[in-house]
Amino acid sequence: MVYHSTIQTVLLVIGGCLVLASAQPSSVNFTVSHDADTDFFTVREGQVLPLNITITGGVDLGIISVVGTDDSIYEIVNATELNITGSGDLPVMMTVHVRGKALGISELELRVKRDGMAKEMVGEYTIKVIRVPTILDFLFTYLLLVWLCLSYVTTGAKMQPKVIWSKMKPPWGILIGMLGQFILMPLWAFALTKIFSLDNETALGLIFVGTCPGGWLSNIFSLLLDCDFVLSLTMTFCSTVMAMGMMPLNLFIYATPLVADNSELKTPFVELAIQLAVLVIPIGVGMGLCYKFEKFKKICEKLLKPLAGILILLALGLGIPSQLYIFTSPWQVWVVSALLPIGGVLLGGIIAKIICLPKKSVITVALETGAQNALLAKTMLDLFYPRPESDLVGRVPLMTSLISLVEGIVVTLAYVLIRYVCCRKDEDQQDLVEKDANESDKAEEVEKGGKQEDQKTEEESQTNFTDDSPTDQAHVNPVFDDTEENEQTWA
């Protein structure tokens, strides 16, 4: 009985395998030809291009059709179907016209419908839609490079070795910042990719931002919010230096599983490390110029806030019109782009508070942890990845920069308003106190002056009554003197 049951089980397994094998869709041999020599088809937004598909075998009888999988990215202009009545019809070619609609990557499916059977997918081909390049894209890309260089030069100009060394004794703020930026933030970014089940391009962009060092945004808002600006500069310098090794390492740990099947998204780790090393040069240039020329330091101190404001306006003026496609991103991109910096601020602030750092240092560490240098990520993506991958991956850095900037501006305006209201109340109270003090001082002076006058009058009166000299008495009582003279005369 045992043998019979074993044989039955084996037969059932074999039968199930045969059923599964028969259920698998049959393959159709086909080739795709187009103008570019690539294994994918690229079309621009609004452009219509032909795609030639040649069926060479795998089907003897049936209707072959081409179907798009995402109508929001591209559409097939001509509804093409090809009826094959026998193997003698092969090879046969069909031309499909594809119109690009929006930035994205999707698949074009080849389906076959045989008699008495439903349509089955027998092949697919990748369609990539890229944005139409404009002059604003060119200007914005190079503006980012200029922005990064200027920000790092001014950062170096504001840094003094003695002051930096003072912030490293004890180095708790620096250590917390490095812990947040290179351990907690990449882990938080990776967790968000899993929580929201992001596609590979969005997930890679989020991890890129999470592994970046701190940047200009944290420095600017530390300055505007009257935080520990020197600590912010020191943390930015240290994180930029450490990013040469930590950023490629974190990308290797968290991004490799996402891009294993896509050669277009593989990260060039060596080139990335070299580019990060190059970014340290402007900091050294700024420190050298500041050390050599004292006037350069004063110029940087005067121009730091105006330059920051001008760069922000230029970035918004050029960046938003040239990168409008980010506003059509899925809601997941918006949510994770907002949660990444908020989570970083909370994590950095909580740890700094546990270590019992001063209040200004807590806010500085929180800003430095949450405000990653997302524009650095965007610049690296434009340099290393082709389109449309660079644009798709770059949605998160751009969105994170924009949201962080808006959040920082709102917080700064609230801080300035609160400070204005509170300081004005304090000034009014101080004015009242000073006014009361002045009035009391005047009253005391008046009272003191009155006492001095009374004392002076009393002294004068006492002097008049105590002086008995003959001359004065004669001058005071002339009548009595005349009487005495008359009496002597009569005698």
Automatic annotation (TrEMBL):
Biased composition (Acidic residues): 481-491
Region (Disordered): 432-491
Keyword field: Membrane, Signal, Symport, Transmembrane, Transmembrane helix, Transport
Localization per Swiss-Prot or TrEMBL: Membrane
Transmembrane segments: 135-153, 174-191, 203-225, 237-260, 272-291, 303-325, 331-352, 396-418
UniProt xrefs under InterPro entries: BilAc:Na_symport/Acr3, Bilac:Na_transpt, Na+/solute_symporter_sf
Keyword Transmembrane carried by entry: yes
Chain intervals with Basic and acidic residues compositional bias: 432-459
Family, as annotated: Belongs to the bile acid:sodium symporter (BASS) (TC 2.A.28) family.
Protein's recorded name: Ileal sodium/bile acid cotransporter
Organism: Patiria miniata
